């Protein structure tokens, strides 16, 4: 048993009046956070599970820390979820109450659930934080792309292992000040973006709503690290040519990290050219927290997610489960991982849990990748939606999307496969053109891709769209394209 937050429980040093959290103009010191979280913990200690209405507020952070301190599994709820999805999550997880901002208006599915308003000025008994490492800490629901969302039960050891591994990879310390504008119902924003700084004894500044102006302001006034998703970095790249303050702020940052989806190489290069700083990428998912990352002290290589984190075993396998031994940068296989960062089960879904693991404990991620000779991992897409088998080749959609984004006529791009009587599957490109009045045609784009990659990777069909459908984390919803 060990504390998740030594700075809050007094196990390491005395954080005292140092800022822990800032949301806009609202700031909490470590002393204030410890007192308010202790009050929450005292009120919910007898609960089996507790829901958290996960708005981007101080109250959400206090509620989560309080639940962890009480040893009660927290279920973060996405405030943008529809009634049907919320109803499913509440029925499945059966929380005893919901923790929320006192000013929040809760939707109909939460009406019958006891409500506990979080008071950030309250105090409680001395904060404890010593539940068993195997105890459930969070139940985070997946996006539900293949059916109703599943609740991934994340133990305390997984949170500790991931955050400590990232501290090693990113040289993350209590002196770092993190800025981000990520939602707090997901692993990226909540575990990495809130619990990460608190475990290190550092601080986090949440933007509330992301903007390049907000990033520039925070990075130029003491923040050292930026977390974002590709859509955020794309907006930053677009703003850089006309915003010298943003250029200066990014150039002075210690670490720029992108995750939740692949950052297009084109945006990597635009940011590096303007600021001299490279964005590093990492790879994880709800069930595994973080698996790999580019290290702060190594080469930031666009298009890759680095090497396995300390404590994480990673392998690529063929369709039949045979491990791929070659690190040749070309052999495509499914990523399987094993380590202390893994979830323990899908709540109430023993069938899905059993199907997710091999007999010897490897988790089947469903993500396809290649590995370079030096171990760097490059994701090429999801097995279900991004692996295209065409003309006898296994092709990852991701590298074709990156190639398309290098065309000056393409603003956004997604690639899928569709049945073809000759090839098995043909490659389909979904394009948001830079100039809707003069979109690039299929022949032009096919030639562009064939020159950069290989002829068998060229798109055979091109659709022009006004926008690509994306979820809250910026991921393209490919099933919606075909629907």
TrEMBL record:
Gene3D superfamilies: 3.30.300.30, N-terminal domain of ligase-like. InterPro entries: AMP-bd_C (IPR025110), AMP-bd_C_sf (IPR045851), AMP-binding_CS (IPR020845), AMP-dep_synth/lig_dom (IPR000873), ANL_N_sf (IPR042099). One of its GO terms (biological process) is fatty acid metabolic process. Residues 15-347 form the AMP-dependent synthetase/ligase domain. It holds the Pfam family AMP-binding_C. SUPFAM superfamilies: Acetyl-CoA synthetase-like (SSF56801). One of its GO terms (molecular function) is medium-chain fatty acid-CoA ligase activity. CDD domains: MCS. Belongs to the ATP-dependent AMP-binding enzyme family. This is Acyl-CoA synthetase. The lineage of its organism: Bacteria, Bacillati, Actinomycetota, Actinomycetes, Kitasatosporales.
